[in-house]
What does this fold into?
Amino acid sequence: MREGTVGDGPLFSLIVAVCDVERYLPDFIASVDRQRFDLRRVEVIAVDDGSTDGSLRLLRAWQARRPGLVQVLTKENGGQASARNLALPLARGRWVGFPDPDDVLAGDYLAKTAKALAACPGGPPDIVHVPMLMWDEARGVRSDTHPRRERFRHRGVVDLVDHPECFPGSASAAFLPRAALAGLTFNERLRPNFEDGDFCARHLLNHARPRVLHVNGTWYHYRKRADLSSSLQTQALDPRRFLVVPREGYLALLTDAERLHGRPPTWLQDLILYEIGGFLRADQRVSESASAAQGEVGAAFLATLGEIAGHLEPSAIETFPVYPWPAEWRDLLMYAAPGLDHVTPYVWRDHVDRGTGEVRLRLRYCGSRQPTVVLGDDQGRPLDVRARKVRSIVYFGQPAMHELIWWVRPGAGLRVRRDGTDWPVRDREPERGRDRAPRSAALLGSLRRTSGKVLRKRPGLRALAGMARALAVGVASAPYVRLPWVRARYAGAWTFMDWLSDANDNGEMLFRHVREHRLDLNAWFVLQKDTPDWAGLARDHGDRLVPLGSLAWAGLRRLNETFVTSQLTRDITEPPGLRHLGVAAPRLVFLQHGVIRDDISRWLNTKPIDLCLASTPAEAASLTDDGTPYVLSTRDVALTGLPRFDRLWRLGQAYPPGRRDLVVIAPTWRASLVTRGDGVGRHEPLDDFAGSPFARAWLALLRDDRLAVALREAGVRIGLLPHPNLKAAWAGVDLPHVEVLDFVGENAGLAFARAAVFVTDYSSMAFSSAYLGRPVVYYQFDRDDYFRGGNVSRPGYFDFARDGFGPVVTSAEIAVDAILGLLAETPQVYAERMDRAFAWRDGHNCERALAAIERGTRPDTENSSSLEGDEESSCARERS
It folds into this structure.
């Protein structure tokens, strides 16, 4: 009897492990009930794994309603693998699937699978896979963005020997033949993940040429929970992911495969590399950074990677087919993790300063012995080295590799010698040894990839039309910039920006300074038209304001020489309408938004920065010193102070102690409380904000009666300065005694100036308060959670208790005590920290920033004394 006909018992068994998914389970149940397939051919075995919510109640109700379909088992909590193992011997279907109860099956999921099985040539396959559609619950978007989506371009059945890129990974969107699973169980020690991959791989290792059937035309909807609570989303916090899974999962699979087949099949090596790549991608991501792989756990994980590498073939790493495998990852896996010495067989140029012609060179090495390298020109003469740095390349909290970085003036050619041998110099670090495609092919490929990505993430013609409009403006700008009057208008220009839709940051402040004091500079400001800050800039500098996305904007970006911005989102640094057209990038000056306190190297290192401004000596050292993770050096970091601090300084002088009438409370935000960004870094709050522990903790402080009475007696009010990402959420909270503040115009500066005490949790705005000498209370009620995952960056040089500008507290009651204490007097220890933090507190940051930009590099040694003199004189002015 053919697959899918009635009369031969269940065709499909769905084994569902359920634990605390009451919120999501109704969607899954409905998706099964709505299947356009004869459910008499289906059985569902749902195992409640010790749920503490209403999940079991929902399962019981489903069973009562569909007794012929649903069977419910219960057990004490033991993990997903143990729940599936309990049900596996009871399954009667010819094909067994293991869907997750927080996901959803498309309506034709079972029908399309049955049809594909019935038409499968050459007999039944060894495993069936259905493509995954990624469901971003927070944004309400379902998109075809799974990293392995390309494997479903194969239709029908494929042989894994011929197509190892089709390796198995997930059992949730798969079906396995029950007859072949005798004696096979899920490994219950593999927690918090990879029990699926291990189960599928061990099944397929029993076959010399495993056959995979791909079901096309239907979807398994994989939900990425808005609250980031799924096991997959929180697994990085579990040490077992780094200590147990790699040894008892990846390493054990490889050694068992060698025993069975003499060598691990290529498909298995691809599976392990895919898994390892997931670790590496997560570790190098600036957000979602919390991880148990630090200290001893990180060191142990790297050691295990070294052992795993001994079972992988170099060719498998070089030709990994799912996504590009960077050369840095290859060196980590093949040399650094096993503890081998290695030096990249080339030096590469990764950046050229368009303004000075200086070139940055890089060379990576593994091991403790730093290679000896001589840089010269074609005649053997030494090059003028403007800066040299030894950078630490950190993985899993360990300085796993190092990099030599030089800034040089090339002169008559460039020649690199190592150990008496000429060393190749490349224009970029090669990706798996592949040469760059011809420009036309690269352009077409880029457009195809980008349009595909746009449609996968935001399906619909509107998204594609937006991309087409941007590209049309970019194309039209090519003849536009050849017009003589356009070249006269924009050639050699300086372009200033903050956010795409907001100004009022360091970009606007420095632009206004330039327009007031340096009319010889051809300065322009770019902003989206009709946004809140447009009117003020148009009133004061309308002839120098350019609408974002216009033809004038595209012409300006093609002809300008210097681009000065406080933000580095990709749409700012690489505009969509120009990034595919080979438009030369201008010299990029990063003004910053605030003082860098955390380690943001994984993000900042990807930006083509020619000059970065710093505000404090500690911040500058964290960017430039040897052993730090940044590619920045003393050549491309200038200690000037933030331009917007000048306005802050002027406002602060107008509010001596007797006029300071606010306790400013400035909560930041949490990734779990907002939707994903809109592409320009902005987020929107989720609907359940008011009931969150975050909101309750801040409301406990804002509504504290003792604080309200004491402040009223002192003639001081509470001012609430919410982070823009949560501004809309706070707007709906009843706080009649609180003055709500915002960041429009001078409002934020006035808030700091009026403040007697500034209260935040982790915000770098505390530096703005300290710049004016206002003490800070750090209300860190969720300290453990924040540093285990609530943060979107990584701990850096700044320690709140050691370096902070006020006390660190963990409860509203203690926060009230701290606020009232600081109102009476600022302890000397905090006053001294504020004094030491900044090189200058004098209102002349714009002057220094402009001088540094014009100079093009950090001041030479002979100029250092003049800067020190400026610091002394400014401090003297402050004391007087």
